[in-house]
Amino acid sequence: MSARPVSNSIVNMTEMVLPSHTNSFGSVFGGTVMSWIDIAAAISAQRHSSSPVVTASIDDLHFIQPVYQGWVVNLKACVNYVSKTSMEVGVRVDAENPISGEKFHTASAYLTFVALTKDGKPKSVPELLPESEDEKRRYKEAEQRRAWRLHRRKLFSEHA
Amino acid sequence: MSARPVSNSIVNMTEMVLPSHTNSFGSVFGGTVMSWIDIAAAISAQRHSSSPVVTASIDDLHFIQPVYQGWVVNLKACVNYVSKTSMEVGVRVDAENPISGEKFHTASAYLTFVALTKDGKPKSVPELLPESEDEKRRYKEAEQRRAWRLHRRKLFSEHA
Amino acid sequence: MSARPVSNSIVNMTEMVLPSHTNSFGSVFGGTVMSWIDIAAAISAQRHSSSPVVTASIDDLHFIQPVYQGWVVNLKACVNYVSKTSMEVGVRVDAENPISGEKFHTASAYLTFVALTKDGKPKSVPELLPESEDEKRRYKEAEQRRAWRLHRRKLFSEHA
Amino acid sequence: MSARPVSNSIVNMTEMVLPSHTNSFGSVFGGTVMSWIDIAAAISAQRHSSSPVVTASIDDLHFIQPVYQGWVVNLKACVNYVSKTSMEVGVRVDAENPISGEKFHTASAYLTFVALTKDGKPKSVPELLPESEDEKRRYKEAEQRRAWRLHRRKLFSEHA
Amino acid sequence: MSARPVSNSIVNMTEMVLPSHTNSFGSVFGGTVMSWIDIAAAISAQRHSSSPVVTASIDDLHFIQPVYQGWVVNLKACVNYVSKTSMEVGVRVDAENPISGEKFHTASAYLTFVALTKDGKPKSVPELLPESEDEKRRYKEAEQRRAWRLHRRKLFSEHA
Amino acid sequence: MSARPVSNSIVNMTEMVLPSHTNSFGSVFGGTVMSWIDIAAAISAQRHSSSPVVTASIDDLHFIQPVYQGWVVNLKACVNYVSKTSMEVGVRVDAENPISGEKFHTASAYLTFVALTKDGKPKSVPELLPESEDEKRRYKEAEQRRAWRLHRRKLFSEHA
Predict the structure, then answer these.
(1) Which CATH class is domain A4-159?
(2) Chains interfacing with A (3 or more CB pairs < 8 Å)
(3) Contact E70 C24 (CB under 8 A)
(4) ipTM for the complex shown
(5) Is residue A9 a contact partner of residue A139, using CB atoms and an 8 Å limit?
């Protein structure tokens, strides 16, 4: 199983905000955006691992700006980092007013996925080859987030 | 605007996992669960604030166990803490095998919501009255999480 | 198979009325409410019988008040009565204006479900243990409704 | 407002049973069928009254046969009877195995609708002109069901 | 396998335009109408062939008039022509303003379907028996469209 | 209103095939693919015109290969050609087996959209600037398709 470049896992997803996605202000539900983030990230993790995957966790998520009905939501996902059986996927969400053409950064998310065998057991994933400067920087930052996550989870289980 | 007890904001939500909620393993998408969490939490925040609300953020979320098609998902939400215009809502998600009756802790989530006026401006929310020991403990823990969030957001903006 | 208390079958379900649930008045379709009633009741019947179930019938249903977009709908279901292979489930539906906090009784429904084996054959269900005064009253009323149903079905088949 | 023939209100609706409509047996949810019945009947009542309408009630409903994924569901609705501001609509539901071509009677339903003005107040509806023998028979039976409904509602409110 | 009359394949489908089907003008998406056309036509082709079917192609489609939220869409489909393993289905789409009762021709579509065996291989379909003058005319026109399609596909592959 | 390059209108859309999108073979409905094509193309036309748009027509569409549940569908859309108030958008649809990574050309579609003012009247759109050789070739081919379309529509109305 040879290493794969980050570029192999890039996913571009575009959604139009329909009435059924919106609350009483005509702005999109947070949960709808999370749902799109999860799908885009899962496709990215599948591309890297050539395996079905399940979501293990999502880091904290801040919604920077409301997104309105009729607007277009652009999601860009790629794998940032891999450990033995898990992958961190980064997703950037931008909203676009389709009339003015203005674009707004809506949210950035980091999710971890586990690759599974047909029987649902975790399996090893190919190594990741960061090539550009940006990819190398994201690789390092993801390594750090992983340490934070393990640390927080430890804290969490001590309190439970 | 007098203070309101935590019990006023309790929401019980029950969902059945249908084929359209599941991936190729017959287990539910992470994003679908996030979407249910967001709805349950939004209803809780609306009850406390008697206002429409928007999701500002969600803390990191770990999926502990897969949930399968035909299973039942129980969500319980309540407001843990309020600051001037924002509220922290905690949501506990349990999955239930409807045949064996077994129940599994699936995820716990903390979301912050902002209450809005009719024109979409942030507005003050009533104070929160934690009554039981559990409610008081959750109030304190939520206060701490808020400090962490502000700290992380500061770190984040320094790096951006 | 030992008898089970009514409390074991209680289901609380909460739904938010979205644009896709509403007609041209912005009020929810009758059929959407019936659909929620059926899901809540099916979960309740599954809990009592530890079996998959199918809807056999629903008694007449009166919609007392319109329910508007953005409102919250609370459903409470429990098993009222069981005969050999079938169960009567009662569902009470209340709507809540999320801003004023006002609550309105919307509808009450009685459904019968049949428990099935893996091969889809009717199977016996555990006896029901009504404990509180309310549960005992509902048990008796359900017994009466059952007699009415059998009577009406007989009338119906004589005319067909 | 001149009287209108029954034939003016006939609605034929056809639905294909998709995975998202089905339970763990691959058979359609009772609530999904009720939802289709409500839509077909509402369109029929709108045609007769040239007004928006809301569902006031649905009589008891018996599911005669299960309907499976991939099958076709045919609904036929027409107005049976009108009083001042309300209409009874009858709906017959038949399921069709698309491969064998076999057809099965699934359910028959009677719903009452109220016609509304733009402001949501009940308004008078045109008289109904039953023409064929079947239409005249259905008109009489609907009159009787109306008497039963008023009687049951009276009983019901005495007990509440 | 004896020939079957056109009348055996007639499908009447009725849809109500809900908020989730509409764009920012409150008029229905072209893709939603195409989706309804495909379902109506697939049911018609299944009825003729007593087989599962897949869409092979759809001819060019012109949207004549916008259709608004709350309106009713009536689709009428029937098989026009069959060759060895494929069928041409014609679908006429009319929109109805439910208040004024006015009806508008929205689109006409021609789709070809292939009948499949259980293993997904193309299989022969029964011959078609056009009976009325209209059915005979449609049969001839469909034959001509088929020649055009084969011609265009040939042009297309020469350019690819 | 200055001319805009083709690159400004490029839309990349990615969809995952869920159970609710599929027929009894587990392959996606033709109408579902048409629906995605319409959304991708509408976003592209909106980007070029900075206006809301409605679908005027779609050329004939051939489905080359079945697409299965769990697969990923990639759509790429851009404006090929503009006349006074209308735009031709080309959409290429490729399916991807997420495990093997294989990609298959599924369909190519050409749609025309009309840009509208706030009141729903047709409005002029900016000129299109084809830059690359491919964009120039597509511009010429689209011009030819437009001539064909006008010719066919004329034929069609003579027969109606």
Answers:
(1) alpha beta
(2) B, C, E, F
(3) yes
(4) 0.90
(5) no
